[in-house]
Every structure is written in structure tokens, then in C-alpha cells.
Specification:
By secondary structure, the protein is an all-alpha fold. The protein is 85% helix and 0% strand.
């Protein structure tokens, strides 16, 4: 059902997501607790920084063999930026809803929201849209 390569790619993507997520989550806490920004703004800022970490690791390590360096980074960056905007929106609104409606601390609500957004939104879009291999690239690799 799943090849060793697809499982390995998934695990690599989880490492990239974890490192980007740790950067994102740590910066969110710092901006909220130390600099007293509202957590929704902290999520926006930290999400952008975490996205840069995540994109870099995905492009140069995880999906390097699929999209290679011949792919146009501009189109990947544009698609990735759209995924990040959607991700940040989902994380911010999900965290806010959990905090306002269910009285869950924003730090816990963020972790809950992140788990759904990461696996249900980010990973599929990054793998199948941002760093997808098109038919032309497959032919070039086979030659």
C-alpha cells in the first residue's frame, strides 16, 4: 500500500514540520508572554518565521529528489505562501475559538489546532501541490 520511499518522505516532512513548528510555537509564546502581543498577532508573526524554516527544509531536504533544483522556486514560494496564509488563518481562528468558546488556554488550544491543521491541511498541500512532480520533470528524471 505505502512504499518505503513514501513513508520516508512523510517522516522527513514531519521533521521539517516539527522544526518549523517549534520555531513557530516558541516565538508565539515569546511574543505573547514577553512582548505582550495578543496571541492572534503572535501566531501571524511566528507563523511566517516558522514557515520560512519549514519551506527551506522541505525544499532542500524533504522534496529535493522530487522537485529538484530545476523547479522554479518562485512558483513554489507562491504556492507555499498561499498554504501558509491558509494555515495561519486556520491556526489563529481555531485557537481563538477554543479559547473563547471552550475556555482552553491559548497554548493548549494552539497545540490542538496545530495537530489538525498540520496533517489535514499543510502536509497534503505541501506534498501534492507545492512540491509536486509534474509529468515533464518525471520524463527528464527518467532520461
Amino acid at each position: 500500500m505505502f512504499s518505503k520511499k513514501s513513508i520516508f518522505t512523510f517522516l522527513q516532512a514531519q521533521v521539517a514540520a516539527f522544526l518549523g513548528g517549534i520555531t513557530d510555537y516558541g516565538l508565539m509564546i515569546l511574543l505573547t508572554e514577553v512582548f505582550k502581543l495578543h496571541f492572534a498577532f503572535s501566531i501571524l508573526i511566528s507563523g511566517i518565521v516558522g514557515a520560512v524554516v519549514n519551506f527551506s527544509i522541505n525544499r532542500f531536504w524533504v522534496f529535493k529528489n522530487q522537485s529538484g533544483y530545476s523547479s522554479h522556486i518562485n512558483s513554489q514560494l507562491l504556492r507555499f505562501a498561499l498554504v501558509v496564509l491558509g494555515s495561519i488563518s486556520l491556526k489563529s481562528s481555531g485557537t481563538l475559538i477554543l479559547q473563547k468558546v471552550f475556555q482552553i488556554d491559548y497554548r493548549i488550544g494552539r497545540l490542538i489546532t496545530d495537530s489538525f491543521v498540520s496533517y489535514g491541511f499543510n502536509y497534503p498541500l505541501i506534498k501534492y501541490w507545492v512540491f509536486k512532480v509534474n509529468e515533464k520533470q518525471k520524463v527528464i528524471k527518467l532520461n
